[in-house]
Known about the structure:
The complex is a heterotrimer.
Chain A: H1 8-17, H2 22-40, E1 43-46, H3 48-63, E2 75-79, H4 106-113, E3 117-122, H5 156-164, E4 169-174, H6 180-186, E5 189-192, E6 212-217, H7 220-230, E7 260-264, H8 274-289, E8 293-297, H9 305-320, H10 338-349, H11 352-365, H12 371-391, E9 397-401, H13 417-421, H14 428-433, E10 437-444, E11 450-456, H15 462-476
Parallel strand pairs in A: 2-3, 2-4, 7-8, 7-9
Antiparallel strand pairs in A: 1-3, 4-6, 5-6, 5-10, 9-11, 10-11
Chain B: H1 7-13, H2 20-37, H3 72-77, E1 82-83, E2 86-89
Antiparallel strand pairs in B: 1-2
Chain C: E1 7-18, H1 57-69, E2 73-74, E3 77-78, E4 81-84, E5 94-97, E6 104-113, E7 116-129, E8 133-137, E9 148-152, E10 159-165, H2 172-189, E11 201-211, E12 221-226, H3 229-248, E13 256-261, E14 266-269, E15 282-283, E16 290-291, H4 294-302, H5 308-317, H6 322-329, H7 333-344, H8 349-367, H9 378-389, H10 395-406, H11 412-418, H12 427-440, H13 442-451, H14 454-467, H15 474-485
Parallel strand pairs in C: 12-13
Antiparallel strand pairs in C: 1-10, 1-11, 2-6, 3-16, 4-5, 4-15, 6-7, 7-10, 8-9, 11-12, 13-14
Helix pairs in contact in C: 2-3, 5-6, 6-8, 7-8, 7-9, 9-10, 10-11, 12-14, 12-15, 13-14, 14-15
Amino acid sequence: MTPSTPTIVEAGALLRSGEVTAISLLEGVLEVAHRTEAMLHAYLTIDREGAVEAAVAADTELAAGHDRGPLHGIPVALKDNMCTRGLETTASSQILSGYLPPYDATVVRRLREAGAVIVGKTNLDEFAMGSSTENSAYGATYNPWDIGRVPGGSSGGSAAAVAAGSAITGLGSDTGGSIRQPAALSGIVGLKPTYGTVSRYGLIAFASSLDQIGPLSRTVDDAALTLEAIWGHDPLDATSYPGEYPDLRADMTTGVSGLKVGVVSELAGEGYEPDVEAAVAAMVERLAGEGAAVVEVSLPSFEIALSAYYLIAPAEASANLARFDGIRYGLRVPGDTTESLMARTRAEGFGPEVTRRILLGTYGLSAGYYEAFYGQAQRVRAAIRQDLARVYHDVDVLVSPTSPTVAFEAGARVADPLAMYLSDICTIPSNLAGDPAISVPIGLDGRGLPIGFQVMAPALGERTLFRVAAEVERLAGFTARPEIELVAS
Amino acid sequence: MPVEIDIAHVARLARLDLTQDELAAYQGQLGVILEHAARVQTLEGKPEVESTHTLGLENVYRDDEVTPSLDREEVLAAAPETRDGYFVVPPALES
Amino acid sequence: MTNTIAWEPVIGIEVHVELSTRSKMFCGCAVDFGAPPNTNVCPVCLGLPGALPVPNRKAIEHILAIGLALNCEVSPRSVFHRKNYFYADLPKNYQISQFDVPVCTGGFLDITVDGETRRIGIERAHMEEDTGKSTHVGQGGRIHAASATLLDFNRSGVPLVEIVSKPEIRSAAEARAYAQELRSLVAELGVSDARLEEGSLRFDANVSVRMAGTDVLGTKVEIKNMNSFRSLERAIEHEVERQITLVAEGEELTQETRHWDEEKGVTHSMRTKEGSSDYRYFTEPDLVPMVIGDSWVAAVRDALPELPARRRARYQGLGLDGRSAAVLSDAPTRLREIFDEAVAVGAGAVAAANWVTGEITGHIRRTGIDAHELTLDGAQLAELVGLVDEGLVSPTAAKEVLEGVLAGEGSPRQVAMTRDLAQMSDPGELAAVVASVLASHPDAVESFRSSGEEKVVGFLVGQVMRVTQGKADPRMVNRLLRESLGG
């Protein structure tokens, strides 16, 4: 069957017309979770008690005419690397098993203020390091479209929950594609906003200069509503943008006529599945048919973006993850000295991918190697920004596949880190540049697996990004839903 | 270009107590990844690295005002070992 | 010994100054050293997952003040770095510090040792955060044979400024003078409590020796754990001696860190793990660059108080000798204000300084009050100095006048009157007293006329003073006596 979970827009209308309550919406998604979790494992923690409390409060407030806006009463799934006060937060790591944060992340506080109902915490690749949600200390998440396949990652739990309907909308974090790639592989919309527009306070850091929280939603409209609830300046995050924010919806019905769309020539060719390339090419043509001027653009630095990313992100991670030492919180493996306690705790507490990246990052920063690796990677990053600045003189947005492939089979890339890293080849440049990018589902491949279309814009270009994304969504008319064999309730 | 890695030294810097087998396995994997990553050295030119912040933010400060601290009991509740309001660890090698 | 090689110490000092801001460097937790353990902590200074730092503007203003006072250049663009090392009292296992672009670079501090002034170069001053505090205890509470370490993170994240001198210090005495001068400077700037016993200033010294007259640098040894000026001086003295003994015997020195043992008066090697000094610095991605423009620097400069060196020079310009200028310069702020006010309304600087550093300081010590509680102001001090200058009050009586003023009895003039301390200086009145004294001591008069002995005059002055109960103006008495004696 196909779950009948509504979108935010649909649910909002039903809530306000009195046809549903926040409690019944919550019951609906919990029922879906109950019947799909055994197969999908999207959630690590379902906070039934907290969610019921929030839903009851939402119903009371809405009945009293106190309307907090579009997310009021909407069940939301949170990636488990965002701190929730008193609710277990693990980043899918053994090292944080049982950890109860004493504070809420800024996005969590904002969701609560918007009246959202937090259903629970979703699975991810440990510390958001991965592209398949298989690197979790608590077991993998599977794709609702084919439970033999991965949902993408690292925000695979939120992607699977929203795709399956065990949440109406969700939050993920995107360091090298961790929102957009799982959105593409799970047939939903995923957005990485401009770096600095969503507070990182309370997001367990992977790579601070790249991490950005954003929505995973069923529609472009829902992604806009979710983003509007969480973004804005936060004095607790020194990298938070204090200026004026774009009006997301201003051009969502304007169409693309007169816009210049650049197709990135480096993001095609070897390694790209033919069905993916064909679907993307067809969409580009339809955009042209709607009046967009399509040009092919070349950004040579994109060829080495992945290499730069796999030096910068692990370097920052090696420092960000140093605090997990068995002293103040989390796992402790005893030792005779502080040093051995720390080293044993960390060896035991981190999984192989996290260990690998810590080693990689430590190496790239260490004496004698810094200049050739980390230092040079920063120059590549600067070159990518220069390349992008150059092409954005001529085009309004760039487009590409979100992922070279559709959802791959579980286990297929686990033994080959480099093959896994290549999953992010299309998404990484936007992180290195700090620019916004969105993935919109545009169809299914021959095997019935979703294909994502990526739109990229310059920093703070979300208004144009949503203009194009809305048109892509309309042109694609993608309404397919995963057929999930539900277990009996 | 093969990359030289003193994996035991790197693991020590990263405070990871790994077995010889684990070290050997990671050394091989890092070699493959770093060979790919070394492609950053093919970049032409030397663009200046100014700030990593996309929006060019600078001078972000807070006022010197005291805000409430956390409740000690809640803080210590997360710790593996505490005593009289302190966190506890075994002695350091260097002490 | 026939060894004629002279060895010369080369010393550089690193000083960590804990700033006295209200809140910590990167979070709003209070800076308060008396608090129970782990009560001034939050996600940021405990290094909890997800927490982010935001720098304290006041701390940046403080380092700018320090830098300007040390004649440094302010970097127009400066960044924070992460310094990576694992230590139990460092919650993130990296310290937010500065690396290649510190806030302040290049500068100097003048010090005086044995009357000679030397200029010590400043390499840099940078901003960083403090660590928590470790206490090593035995299972039974014994200090030795530590079996556990207790961690308190109240100090974690307190703003620190590290000031690094150039290796231009040439003796232990100079090192001590440098440290003392820095202490009075940060105290004067009001940027630190400057209490050594509470660790608000901490010193590390880099010591090497070389053949005098060469500029080849020897092997550098870092010494830690000096917590007073005296221990800094002793530790350096000891280390220099140790190094000279070794190199004179032709032995190789090891580049290492040594720990000063105050009780035994020796330094000993600290075993550090191999490779622990690869700090893997990189730009702190959670923070944005500091762009410190001219207007900010100018505002801090305008707000700088007068610093000790400049103040001493000003006092000497008023006629004080070097020693008095130094003593007055170190006096409490309120006393210096009283001095300045008195001089401004016409009091002689030397006399005013003597009162301030002598009787008034003595009064504060005896009574234990704060200088701010004094009932004396600058105008009154000027009046007191004036009374003595005009001969209206004798220097001896003036001390009693001051006592009355400090007891709140009124202005010096009022006290002199109510306590009846004014000098007799009416020539007619005094002449009568002198005549009567001469009449009652004919022997003395005869003795002076025949021998001219000066001590006879002294005796007669004393008699006049006795008769007038000390109120006669001694100079006038002297003159009148000599006139009458025909001397």
